[in-house]
Amino acid sequence: MEFKHLVEAAEKWCSGNPFDLIFAEEDDERRLDFYAEPGVSFYVLCPGGTDSFHVWSESEDCLPFLQLAQDYISSCGKKTLLEVLEKVFTSFRPLLGLPDLDDDSFEHYHTDMEGEPGPDQQQMGVSQQ
């Protein structure tokens, strides 16, 4: 994909979340830099052929959160820039003060599973006579 199309896709992605595209360079490396308050930053090196994407941060605080995205990129199959950015966003949710999506899904599932048994469900426990 042409670099200008990657930049356009990154700018569109930024419109739906707290990140801003703060730098885009094609000369030395095809690199997109992103930043969000409170000091969350990362960059993406875009493939220039058969290579895959690479994500990294120069912030020591951010690096551990990128492991999920790095594992995703190195897994089988080609990834798009938007897929990589979404995985990075998911990884950084705790740093951004946003709820973890996995926790929300579990809470919703757990809440649905609680409640009174229906008329055709047997209640567990000791019956009193």
Show the helix and strand layout.
Elements lengths: L2 H12 L5 E6 L5 E6 L3 E6 L8 E3 L10 H8 L6 H12 L8 H13 L16
Antiparallel strand pairs: 1-2, 2-3, 3-4
Structural summary, described in words:
This protein is α+β, with helices and mostly antiparallel strands and 129 residues long. The chain is built from four helices and four strands, in the order H-E-E-E-E-H-H-H. It is globular, with a radius of gyration of 21 Å. The N and C termini lie far apart (74 Å).
Instruction: Write the element-wise H/E pattern from the N-terminal end onward.
Output: HEEEEHHH
Kindly report the spatial arrangement of strands forming the biggest sheet.
1-2-3-4
Q: Quickly count the helices.
A: 4
What is the number of beta strands?
Answer: 4
List keywords for this structure.
4 helices; Maturin; 129 residues; 4-stranded antiparallel beta sheet; 35% helix; developmental protein; cytoplasm; alpha+beta
Give the structure's gist in a few sentences.
By secondary structure, the protein is α+β, with helices and mostly antiparallel strands.
